[in-house]
Amino acid sequence: MSDDPLRDRFERADxxxxxxxxxAELAQLLDQLGLGFSDAQxxxxxxxxxxxxxxxxxxxxxxxxWTSQ
Length: 69
Description:
The chain has helices spanning about 5-15, 25-30, 40-50, 60-69. It has about 70 residues and is mainly alpha-helical. It starts with a helix and ends with a helix.
């Protein structure tokens, strides 16, 4: 665990430990948070977080989204 709780949450969500979160990993995180998003909502949320359009959420994109909530 690091001194950065948000990094820790990101790393826990990053199931394959590749340093990025894919859409399935985001869906799992949202479920763990009890948000009950539909597939369409997960996709829309993923698309809005993935600002650079890489198809993966990087830590800084995640941080910007998380802190804006």
